[in-house]
Specification:
The complex is a heterodimer of chains A (419) and B (118). With 419 residues, chain A is an alpha/beta fold. Chain A is 20% helix and 34% strand. Chain B contains 2 helices and 10 strands. The complex binds flavin-adenine dinucleotide and iron/sulfur cluster.
Chain lengths: 419, 118
């Protein structure tokens, strides 16, 4: 058993972990990264299509290229990176934390650190989470798993497929499956609008004449050992119109029905979980309910754009550095989400610096306004162009726009959306 | 002839109205000039950027990701993919290394999008 001492341990070497670690090292604290996979980069390694980095690098990159830009920063530093290594547990001590990990190469590893950054990413929702009736034959995959199989392992999940859910990962996989020679029969979406970006509808579905059935559900899966077909039923006013059910023959179903933060290690460490996001509850410095443990990226809340993951994680790295330098013991105030928003993150703010918030809409609109109120009094508004639940909204509250005189210990800031 | 197209040059996705009269093509409803270029090209000769993975011999990975350096004419895509999915690449490879040069005289190369040492 080997013991390693550092200021900080970052768990997960995806885009979140790499950005946070780079920032912490930049501030001259010692840091190590533990990554379960053989290479750094996380989910980006399987997202081989282009369209990443338009905000951050002002260029259109593929997922692996985006990841490698960060991996190069990490490799050029003197940071220790443990790939092929999995963290199993975090233990609180009076002073700092002990983190346990194991790998085939290093065996058991024990890290003694002052702070921990959770950057373990998310998992895909699967059939259990959505409850489709019918048998349980082989041939049902989550879209992300299929993406990994096709792009990284060169395996074909099947030859005739239907995609359930119209999120971007599902749409991207519709094109990929078509490109590798499969017959993609349809995309089925329960909502009346597509979850993914319009440009993905055009270049991933329309280019291949793949029909998109909006307001439809998979009502039955047929097949004993392997999927043989599915029944699709339209919805009208939220009710299944069973007499209009139709059948599609297929051997594969790809589920693209959403992502959830991977919060197992956080739960085990006794961290409070936010019921809306399934990630940890965090304060204005992205610190969880356990002192010295921070979170960023998809383990905190699911992001649709990697650019936002990097942005949030750089900030997280700066907050961790502030913490190590004892700069963060300032009064924090409450932040809540109001009408038409599913959640806002973080749930606290400070009055002595700018505060950055991320949130998700519950509604689809072409024009809307964000409204900010402090104890019921309007503080400001921001016009938004197109909003939908699958696209995260970001908002910065500038320090100068906050009326500090109006703040008392119980002050609450509320952000809401008017359509 | 008038066609409705959705511009894919950026995530906004403007709904373009593209009209062809003889040799003249006019694009409407585009929010910026890239929409005009896209509308014309899409009507005359649609192109797409193609990404894929090629098999690679390495302890770290089984396949290496690649992309075309520019959008290529859609009628070439299937032949290109067929070629790429079986083209064996050997390490070391650097990001940007050419995997396939000037595919079918299109002037477009396919490059690696990942670095793999040894
Ligand atoms: C299937 C899928 C497709 C996506 N496609 C796109 C896209 O096309 N465009 C886009 O902009 N965004 C896309 N995203 C969004 C993506 O969430 C972000 O782009 C971003 O890459 C997430 O970064 P992350 O570091 O938070 O998570 P990840 O990249 O998932 O990184 C988490 C890392 O932690 C490691 N890890 C987990 N648990 C442990 C442990 N116990 N010990 C050690 N290591 C551990 C994992 O191996 C992984 O490498 C996609 C997401 C998914 C899930
Ligand atoms: S026309 Fe311009 S703004 Fe509109 S989608 Fe195309 S690139 Fe974007």
């Amino acid at each position: 058993m080997k013991t390693i001492e550092k200021d900080v341990l970052v768990i997960g070497g995806g885009s979140a972990g790499m950005a946070a670690a780079a920032e912490i090292r930049e501030r001259n604290h010692s840091v190590a990264i533990v990554e379960r996979d053989n290479i750094l980069g996380g989910i980006l390694n399987q997202c081989i299509h282009n369209g990443f980095g338009l905000h951050r690098f002002k260029e259109e990159l593929t997922g692996p290229e985006y990841a490698e830009r960060y991996a190069e920063i990490i490799e050029a530093s003197d940071m220790e990176v443990f790939t092929g290594t999995t963290v199993t547990e975090i233990e609180k001590r009076d002073e700092g934390k002990t983190v346990y990990a194991y790998s085939a190469r290093h065996g058991m590893l024990v890290f003694q650190v002052k702070a921990v950054v959770l950057a373990m990413g998310c998992r895909e929702r699967n059939r259990g989470n959505i409850g489709t009736p019918g048998t349980r034959p082989a041939g049902v995959y989550t879209a992300g798993l299929a993406q990994r199989l096709v792009n990284m392992e060169g395996l074909m999940p099947g030859s005739k497929c239907v995609i359930v859910g119209s999120g971007d990962i599902g749409l991207i996989m519709a094109r990929r499956m078509s490109w590798v020679g499969a017959d993609v029969k349809a995309v089925v979406e329960i909502q009346p609008y597509p979850a993914g970006l319009t440009r993905n509808i055009v270049q991933c579905l329309n280019d291949f004449n793949i029909p998109l059935h909006l307001s439809h559900v998979v009502s039955k899966i047929h097949g004993k050992d392997r999927v043989e077909g599915i029944d699709i039923t339209p919805l009208r006013d939220g009710i299944e119109v069973t007499e209009e059910t139709f059948h599609i023959e297929c051997d594969t179903l790809l589920l693209s029905v959403g992502l959830i933060p991977d919060n197992e290690i956080a739960r085990k460490a006794g961290i409070d979980i936010n019921r809306e996001t399934n990630g940890p509850l965090v304060d204005s410095s992205l610190m969880t309910s356990v002192e010295g443990i921070f979170a960023c990226g998809n383990v905190l809340h699911v992001h649709d754009l990697v650019d936002y993951v990097s942005e949030e994680s750089h900030r997280c790295g700066a907050f961790v550095s502030d913490y190590l330098e004892h700069q963060s013991e300032t009064k924090q105030f409450k932040m809540v989400s109001g009408s038409n928003l599913k959640y806002v993150i973080p749930n606290q703010f400070r009055a002595d610096r700018d505060n950055h918030f991320y949130m998700r809409s519950l509604i689809v609109r072409n024009h809307a306004e964000l409204v900010l109120t402090l104890d019921g009094k309007e503080l400001g508004r921001k016009k938004l162009r197109h909003i939908q639940p699958s696209e995260m909204i970001s908002f910065t509250l500038k320090e100068k726009d906050l009326d500090k005189a109006a703040l008392d210990d119980n002050s609450t800031l509320e952000i809401s959306l008017v359509g | 002839m008038t066609k409705e197209l959705i511009c894919i040059s950026c995530p906004i996705g403007c709904h373009l109205e593209v009209t062809q009269k003889g040799d003249e093509i006019t694009v409407r409803n585009n929010k910026c000039s890239r929409g005009e270029i896209y509308g014309k090209e899409e009507l005359l000769a649609p192109k797409r950027v193609v990404t894929a993975t090629c098999p690679v011999k390495s302890d770290l990975m089984l396949r290496i990701p690649v992309k075309t350096t520019e959008a290529i004419p859609v009628e070439l895509i299937n032949r290109l993919l067929e070629e790429l999915y079986k083209r064996e690449v050997s390490a070391p490879v650097r990001r940007g290394d050419i995997i396939l040069e000037n595919f079918m005289d299109s002037g477009i190369d396919v490059v690696s999008t990942k670095t793999l040492s040894g």
